[in-house]
Amino acid sequence: MSKPSSSEDILGQKYDRCLADLLVKSGVGFSVGVVASVIFFRRRTWPIALSTGFGAGAAYADCDRSFNPARIPGTRVLSQNEAATLQGNKSN
């Protein structure tokens, strides 16, 4: 049997996942920005900043959904009474 995880461990895992996601998505955005800057925009810097910001924004949105699942479209947060009622209906 596995022992239950503490809330601090779960929170730490979420923060670690969010930080890793931020680094990866910002890095990919930076890389795309550098390539676009060199190929299409005559070595301007704004494509690098823009695409890095897009990557960081996507990571922020994913992290926000991780910490607040009620913001995911199509999900519904139930109270304990509603959950108990649904469990009672499933067993019948």
TrEMBL record:
InterPro entries, A to Z:
Mic10 (IPR007512)
Q: Which GO terms describe its cellular component?
A: MICOS complex
Q: Where in the cell is it found?
A: Mitochondrion inner membrane
Principal localization? mitochondrion
- Which residue windows are transmembrane per the record? 22-41
Give the membrane topology, semicolon-separated if more than one.
Single-pass membrane protein
Q: Does the keyword NAD apply?
A: no
Which of UniProt's keywords are assigned here? Membrane, Mitochondrion, Mitochondrion inner membrane, Transmembrane, Transmembrane helix
> Quaternary structure?
Component of the mitochondrial contact site and cristae organizing system (MICOS) complex.
Family of this protein: Belongs to the MICOS complex subunit Mic10 family.
Classification via PANTHER family: MICOS COMPLEX SUBUNIT MIC10
Q: What does this protein do?
A: Component of the MICOS complex, a large protein complex of the mitochondrial inner membrane that plays crucial roles in the maintenance of crista junctions, inner membrane architecture, and formation of contact sites to the outer membrane.
Name the record gives this protein: MICOS complex subunit MIC10
- Provide the species name: Leucocoprinus birnbaumii
Give the lineage.
Answer: Eukaryota, Fungi, Dikarya, Basidiomycota, Agaricomycotina
